[in-house]
Amino acid sequence: MKWKVGLIQMDIAFGDPKENYKRAEQWFEKAAEQECTLVVLPELWTTGYDLTRLDEIAHYEGEDALQFLKEQAVKHRFHIVGGSVAKQTADGVKNTMYIVDKNGRMLHEYSKLHLFRLMDEHKYLIAGEDEARFTVDGEEAGSFICYDIRFPEWLRKPVLNGAKVLFVVAEWPLPRLDHWQTLLKARAIENQSYIVACNRVGRDPHNIFAGHSMIIDPWGTVISEGGEGEELLTGNVDLGLIDEIRGRIPVFDDRRPDFY
Ligand SMILES: NC(=O)CCC(=O)C(=O)O
User: Fold this and answer.
1) With contact defined as beta carbons under 8 Å apart, do 256 and 232 qualify?
2) What percentage of residues in the chain have a pLDDT greater than 90?
């Protein structure tokens, strides 16, 4: 399977879903012009980290955000890894990613497993308990949200069940840009998998965000990397490369799971 992926490295209007829908719609137009076949949005792309106003701005059961993603996918005939949105549930608000295919079918829902205390997530959000593994175009993949990438054992899990590409959506601040780049490269190399990671840019009242969205191949080579401004970052993902790399260094055959 080959995809032309488009990473929407956008700025996000703080606490203003209506404005962010408009912006996302324009980015989707650009992705269609570039003939992308799979498009990725960043974390919390409708609200940003306006956590104190979630009562007002979180999406009731995620419904309107999911509907928007489905319509855009059908309109442009591409798959969408829908970043994440603040989903209001009966138990509290989750940081939730939706993945929809080009026919407007929801393929997968994943809520962030690891809440990031440094940005107060633990005070306003509840953690998810979903599996990270899903299938798109018949290919196994994994879904992760930002801080999740610091937990290698969590990214390993879908890979041990066949995942070849790991999608990451983020609002990762600039002061830890080197962590972002290093962790993503390590996750690609150790898992011999593609990493497709979309980060936001711009600033909110508390943070400046790093951009530097990345597409990394299973050898750890960075195929495309964004700068620190808004852009649609594109690159080709060829899942045929996975078997070649895993054959070159057979890490998965050489594991000693009896010891760990
Ligand atoms: N939104 C996040 O989860 C940020 C994670 C982060 O910045 C980190 O250093 O980890």
Assistant:
1) no
2) 100
Q: 35 CA distance to ligand 1 centroid (A)? A: 31
Predicted ipTM beyond 0.95: yes
Residue 179 CA to ligand 1 centre (angstroms): 10
pLDDT of residue 257: 95
Given 87, 94, 112, 164, the catalytic residue? 112
122 lines ligand 1 (CB under 6 A): no
Per the structure, the count of domains in the chain is 1
Asked if residue 215 is part of any domain, the answer here is yes
pTM of the model: 0.98
Residue 146 Cα, ligand 1 centroid: separation in angstroms? Answer: 5
Taking only the tens place, the pLDDT of each residue in 124-146 is 999 999 999 999 999 999 999 99
In a domain, 123, yes or no: yes
Q: Which domain holds residue 227?
A: 2-251
Query: Quick one: which of 34, 64, 85 has its CA closest to 236?
Result: 34
Domain-embedded: residue 257: no
User: What CATH number does the domain containing 82 carry?
Assistant: 3.60.110.10
What pLDDT was estimated at residue 29? 98
Instruction: Tell whether 258 is covered by a domain.
Output: no
Q: 2 and 236 in contact (C-beta within 8 Å)?
A: yes
